[in-house]
C-alpha cells in the first residue's frame, strides 16, 4: 500500500528525465532574467507589463523585441514623437499607467514638457492624428481611405506614407496594450487601479509596488506579491530583479537627482483627459450583417497573411516580421487551453470588431465560451477603461495566473491585428485609388 501511494504522489522518473526537466526550468528562469536585465538597461526599472508577461518568456521575448523596435529603433518618426503618439493612444482608454510610462520616456528623450499640458499644446501635425486615433481605438470599422488622404495631403502639416504607417502601428500597439493592462488588473489578487476624482492622477500607481516605490502602502506590496509569486523560484527571481532595479535607480539618481525629481513632478501633470477630444465617442456594437451601412470585413478579402504583412513590411522595414512573430508566439504558447478555445477567443474578438471568417463555424464560440467569459473578453477588447472594469468571469477562478495572462495576451494580439487590418486596408485603398 505504501508503494502504491508513493507511485501516485511521486511518479518514477529516470535520473536523466529529472536532469532534463531541471535544465528546462533553469533555462526558462535564465531567459526571463536576461529579458529583464535588458529592460533594466533601457529603462532603469522593470515595468509591470513585462512582469505580468514573464510567465510566458517565449512570448515576452517577441513582445519586447517588437516594442523596442517600434519605440526606439530606426524609423521615420523622431523618438519623442513616438512616445507622444503612445500617450495619445493610451489616453483614449484613460490608461493612467501607460500615459505616465510614456510621459516619462517622452521627457527623457528631450520632448517639450509643454506638450504634456494637453493635445492643444502639441504641434498641429500631431493633432491631425487625433481622428484616426479615436476611430481605431473605439470603432475601427469606420477607418476609411478618406482619413488616410487627409493625413497625407494636409499642406505643410502632411505626413509621409512611411511616417503614417509607423504612427498607425504605435497607435494599435498601445490601444491593445491598454486591453492587457486592464484585463490583467481584473484578477482578484491584483490591487485595483487607483481612481482619483476629477481626473487628477493618483499619488502612486499600484503597478509601482513591484518596482520598489517606497510610497506604496504595504498592502499593495502584499497584493502584488500574491499575484506574481506563484512559486518559491519565482520569488527568488523577482528578488534578484528588484535588487537590480533598485541598484539601477540609485545609480541614475546619483548621476542626475535634480533631473529625476523634475521629471517625476512633470509626469503627474500628464492628465489623460487632456489628450482626449470627443469623449462621448466610444465603442458601440458593430451593425448586423444585413445592415448596408456597415459592411462586414471579410478576412478572405483582406488578411494579415496575404495582404497586411507584406504592405506594412514594405513601408516600415522589418516590422511585419516582428508583428507576425508576436501573433505566432501567442497562439503557439503551451497551455491548458485547447487550440479550438484559443481560436474561438481570437475569432470572437475579430467578430465583435466587424471581421468575419467565412470558413469558421461561429457556433463554436457559444459552445466553448461561457456567457460571462464572453462578456469579459468583449469588455477587455472593446472598451478597456478603469470606470468600466468588467467582473471576473466565474470560469476564471480555476485558472492558474499564467493561464489568465495567456487569455489576456490572446485578447491583446487579436485586437492589435484587427486594428492593423482596418488601417492597412484603408492605406491600400488610398494607394490604388
Keywords:
433 residues, mainly alpha, two-stranded parallel ribbon, globular, disordered N terminus
Q: What does this molecule look like?
A:
The structure is a single chain. By secondary structure, the protein is mostly helical. It contains 19 helices and two strands. The protein has helices at residues 2-9, 15-43, 48-53, 57-72, 79-91, 96-108, 124-127, 130-138, 145-152, 161-185, 218-228, 232-255, 257-267, 304-315, 319-332, 339-352, 363-368, 371-382, 401-432; strands at residues 297-298, 355-356. A two-stranded parallel sheet has the order 1-2. Helix 8 (130-138) crosses helix 10 (161-185), helix 14 (304-315) packs across helix 19 and helix 16 (339-352) crosses helix 18 (371-382). The model is unreliable at 1-12, 21-26, 39-45, 186-238 and 255-268 (pLDDT under 50).
Helix content: 55-70%
Span of the ends, CA to CA: 79 Å
Could you give the order of the helices and strands? HHHHHHHHHHHHHEHHHEHHH
Label the structural class: mainly alpha
Shape: globular
Compute the number of helices. 19
- In total, the number of strands is 2
Unreliably modeled segments: 1-12, 21-26, 39-45, 186-238, 255-268
Report the β-strand fraction as a percent range: under 5%
